[in-house]
């Protein structure tokens, strides 16, 4: 069975890292105020990449928060769809996954 305390610490560390990264992305997006059209175009291209990273980070944050909620409820490590135990190998790769391998497919 899964060492829940270890997983919780891992999830909380990842959550803190993601929150810090999102703050940096937000600061970078707010820092652009170029008046030069060429520079502005280059900044816009970079902004699109940053925004995509931000959206991806927000999605992962929601999944981590849901996993932390499952830990608090005592449901962590069990598939939310079929109730089967999620393999340790799967949780090593995706510690926030709510599904076993069969239900995820």
From TrEMBL:
Coiled-coil region list: 1-35
Keyword Coiled coil part of the UniProt annotation: yes
This protein's UniProt keywords: Coiled coil, Metal-binding, Zinc, Zinc-finger
dksA C4-type zinc finger segments: 79-103
Positions of the Zinc finger DksA/TraR C4-type domain: 74-104
GO molecular function, one term: zinc ion binding
InterPro entries xrefs: DksA-like_N (IPR048487), DnaK_N (IPR037187), Znf_DskA_TraR (IPR000962)
Highest taxon in the source lineage: Bacteria
Chain ranges of the DnaK suppressor protein-like N-terminal domain: 8-71
Official protein name in the record: TraR/DksA family transcriptional regulator
Organism of origin: Aliigemmobacter aestuarii
């Amino acid at each position: 069975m899964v060492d829940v305390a270890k997983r919780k610490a891992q999830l909380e560390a990842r959550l803190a890292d993601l929150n810090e990264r999102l703050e940096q992305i937000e600061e970078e997006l707010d820092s652009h105020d170029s008046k030069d059209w060429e520079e502005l175009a280059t900044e816009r291209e970079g902004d699109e990449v940053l925004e995509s990273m931000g959206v991806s980070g927000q999605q992962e944050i929601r999944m981590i928060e849901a996993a932390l909620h499952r830990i608090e409820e005592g449901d962590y490590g069990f598939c939310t769809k079929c109730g089967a135990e999620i393999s340790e190998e799967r949780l090593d790769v995706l510690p926030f996954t709510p599904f076993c391998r069969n239900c995820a497919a």
